[in-house]
Design a protein that fits this description.
single chain, mainly alpha, 0% strand, elongated
Length: 141
């Protein structure tokens, strides 16, 4: 009886091997299903990209606004009697840290660099209205 049990277990194991690890086994089916999912995702991306390109081609064939937009953005073209303003953004922040002892006391130009000008109250107060003596303003005296 014991030998019969061992033989049956070995027989079942031999029959199960192709099911799990063989040419058409579950492991291979799982790998193929993973590949199919990856290909479907890639296909969805390409379908969306193709639709975008089709719409862009349709706009370029039909309307002038798409051509004008392309000329402005890619070639930097402007219309006649149009004013072009170019805004340049400062990529590096301005620091006031001295890098050498000579720069320890910043000059007025360095202090204003990167800062907006602010209206300051005048250092000298305007003179009050003084009475003018008549002899100064009269000609011929």
């Amino acid at each position: 009886m014991r030998k019969l049990t061992v033989v049956l277990v070995v027989l079942i194991a031999l029959l199960q091997y192709p099911l799990w690890l063989g040419k058409g086994g579950w492991l291979r089916v799982w790998q193929y299903s993973q590949q199919i999912e990856a290909h479907e995702k890639r296909n969805d991306y390409y379908k969306q990209r193709n639709e975008t390109l089709r719409a862009e081609v349709r706009d370029l064939k039909q309307g002038q606004s798409a051509v004008e937009e392309r000329a402005r953005s890619e070639l930097g073209l402007i219309k006649q009697d149009e004013v072009f303003y170019q805004v340049i953004q400062n990529k590096q922040p301005v620091t006031n840290k001295p890098t050498s002892p000579l720069e320890a006391k910043p000059t007025a130009a360095k202090q204003l660099e990167g800062k907006p000008l602010q209206a300051k109250s005048p250092a000298v107060k305007p003179a009050e209205a003084l009475p003018i003596s008549p002899d100064i303003n009269q000609p011929g005296q």
